[in-house]
């Protein structure tokens, strides 16, 4: 039976963010990419709601000892889930994760519905602005045209900013890989180094000429590093 791999996207992410990882690992892993219910209406704290969703998803699919990989907000969810359910996670991989500090200027959208502004903010995510494809910009733009979705985005960003994981990181013994862009402007390199210092069983790999989403910007290098970590 294949080991399961759970891929968790960020605040503006989607399933396509993980295409490179899926193509590289799908023959050997049972890959799950749950769509985080960021836009659901609920009465819980937004981040807690996402962690609860992941708990239910893992239970429903009877996943055990999964490799859990999270980008940005997805990393934050992965940290909280792993801390609460270490028996369910064999290895944890974080890239551009929130939880310590995040410069999430996309969370406010002062120019909601302005296409060129959205293109600029999406490009800000990457070291190479060309990575912000027309399809990706259009996907984010459509979200911003919906007032309720924008409200959920802002609420979730604020929830993540309130939830600092500093205290729980030293308690986590799960082998953890940190893959970080040296040019990440949203979760800067100092965040990666602090994660590395606080997580007792962690390894940090910094990628030059790379921004907030290494699995999209440098997919081959990302997969090579991940491959090495998984076979140790």
UniProtKB/TrEMBL annotation:
Pfam families: Abhydrolase_6. GO terms for molecular function: hydrolase activity. The keyword Hydrolase applies. Keywords: Hydrolase. It comes from the Bacteria. Residues 6-224 form the AB hydrolase-1 domain. This is Alpha/beta hydrolase. It comes from Chitinophaga qingshengii.
